[in-house]
Specification:
This protein has helices at 2-7, 50-75, 90-97, 113-118, 123-130, 164-177, 196-207, 255-273, 301-308, 311-321, 327-349, 374-377; strands at 10-11, 14-15, 25-29, 105-107, 184-189, 212-218, 221-222, 225-226, 247-251, 276-281. It is α/β, with parallel strands linked by helices. The structure holds thiamine diphosphate (TPP) and magnesium ion (MG). The site of thiamine diphosphate has 17 residues, from strand 7.
């Protein structure tokens, strides 16, 4: 009997169980608590140079101030479509995209304007896109946030929920077949991380060991639904266990931590070790879009984040305390950003609306599929 028990792996204390699955989630860059009366800063010991840090600062300010200008244009009814802000979570997009190589790919979602700037989009192109002008990236043909720029390595979102994860997975599979060593960075919201497409895409990327890095922006709401009402996990990084890939938790309002964790993930992915899921803990200070009055948000919550955990304030505190820059230098950068925005929004406002004929171009390959309106609007 005793022998039998031994053979079956049983002991006197009952059957020996396999140890529970150990989830390995790296929390090295996890959010820190706000200490009484002490302003939050950013992590120290970064590999970034002072010059690069000031560039990051410029991107943060550019994102915030371009969005403010877009709201301004929206209130003047010059914007076609909705306006979706990344207020309070700019550091996630900027810090993560900054770790990429120019030939790497991204798929941004509505809170990732900062990543588009890092990839080389200019404010004038964004203003033109929001006003549906001919000189915007989609030539006025698609909704303001649904635009791409293949030459600059970014894929326009077809949906803001999970669908871009399998799309990026496919791109990376294609790149592997072409023997390119690029990585793909896909952004997803907490709501989007509960969709079927997210799971299918992640699973396929994981099993194929594709160099996919997914940044799950845990900004605590999906439209009006708090995260706790649409997923049972406390940390979105825990979902990495479903795919057998590493998961990281990062302070999404610390631009340096976002850069460092993404850089690590990129090294891992580019060296053939496969996909990585990074959860960025952050907070959406504006509604889903400008039309959303946020009446579902508990009183005082937004104000708390604004006062204690603003990514731009935190980075300013860091730059000043670490003596990377003086207040005058930061003001100089902000003034230059403001000048660029004034110039670019003027350029976009005075640019033309698209010609009606343009609607039939850039949709299908017109050399193969003749435009439906050819006889009427196009020269024969
Ligand atoms: C299939 C589908 N359903 C609904 C929408 C509308 N929609 C766009 S974003 C969004 C909420 C997304 O929330 P989350 O993923 O948390 O991202 P966040 O907006 O917070 O960045 C919804 C419902 C959509 N784009 N596609
Ligand atoms: Mg969300």
């Amino acid at each position: 009997m005793a022998e039998n028990q031994k053979q079956n792996g049983n002991s006197k204390r009952g059957p020996r169980r396999r140890p529970p699955f150990q989830m390995r989630i790296n929390t090295k860059y996890a959010p820190r608590k706000v200490a009484d009366g002490q302003a939050l800063s950013c992590i120290t010991g970064s590999s970034l140079t002072d010059e690069q840090m000031l560039e990051l600062y410029r991107y943060l300010k550019l994102t915030r101030l371009v969005e403010e200008r877009i709201v301004n244009l929206y209130r003047q009814t010059k914007v076609v479509g909705g306006v979706y802000r990344s207020l309070g979570q700019e550091a996630t997009a900027v810090g993560s995209a900054y770790a990429l190589r120019p030939d790497d790919f991204i798929t941004p979602i509505i809170r990732d304007l900062g990543a588009c700037f890092v990839k080389g989009i200019r404010p004038r192109e964004i203003f033109a896109q929001y006003m549906a002008k001919a000189w915007g990236p989609s030539g006025g043909k698609d909704l303001n946030v649904h635009f791409g720029y293949m030459e600059k390595g970014f894929i326009g979102p077809i949906s803001h929920l999970g669908d871009m994860i399998p799309v990026m997975t496919g791109i990376l599979l294609g790149a592997r077949l072409q023997k390119k060593d690029i990585v793909g960075l896909a952004y997803i919201g907490d709501g989007g991380a509960s969709t079927g497409a997210f799971y299918e895409g992640m699973n396929f990327a994981a099993v194929q060991k594709l160099p996919l890095i997914v940044i799950a922006e845990h900004n605590q709401y999906a439209y009006s639904t708090p995260t706790t009402m649409q997923t049972a996990v406390r940390n979105l990084a825990e979902k990495s266990a479903a795919f057998g890939i590493p998961g990281y938790i990062v302070d999404g309002n610390d631009v340096i931590a976002c850069y460092e964790v993404t850089k690590r993930a990129i090294d891992h992915a580019r060296h053939g070790h496969g996909a990585v899921l990074i959860e960025a803990k952050t907070y959406r200070r504006k509604g889903h879009a400008e039309h959303d009055d946020q009446r579902y948000v508990p009183e005082g919550e937004i104000e708390w984040w604004e006062k204690h955990n603003d990514p731009v304030d935190r980075f300013e505190t860091f730059l000043l305390h670490q003596k990377v820059a003086t207040k005058e230098k930061l003001d100089e950068i902000t003034a230059a950003v403001q000048r660029e925005i004034d110039e670019d929004s003027e350029w976009a406002e005075s640019s033309p609306m698209p010609e009606a004929e343009g609607a039939v171009y850039g949709v299908f390959d017109n050399s193969i599929v003749p435009p439906a309106f050819r006889p009427e609007v196009l020269p024969k």
